[in-house]
Amino acid sequence: MDVRVQESAFDLGVETSEFAAKTSASGAVVTFTGIVRNNAAGTLEHMQIEHYPAMTQKALEAISNEALTRWQLEDAKVIHRFGALKPGEMIMMVATAAPHRKDAFEAAEFLMDYLKSRAPFWKKEVSSDDASWVAAKEEDEAALGRWQE
Description:
Aldehyde Oxidoreductase, domain 3; alpha+beta; 149 residues
């Protein structure tokens, strides 16, 4: 398992290749990459992502471990960035490897839903004339709800 919270950009191709190369018992590797999107008006200068390092690392490791126990996974990877990210930059990636695709897809969705609604990051959208904190969305909470046992 590889869980990283970092300010620096990552190379999606390298991260995916390295992850897949370690998974000899898997028949499926699923990846998802989140990208900073511009706001509806197209005026977003950057998204400021803040976190408390010790809390964030522990939370992401705990949810990754949960995915490893809930699904038959060989491995999982989570990378999430912080700092000032411009539209089009990669903000996070999730990768899961499993003997069968169903487990790989479900575990990846579980991790993405958690990252979207529960991971301890605070996001502020900054434009030339405004800055506002990003609020939780009902649809993100609903998506996470499907994983409750």
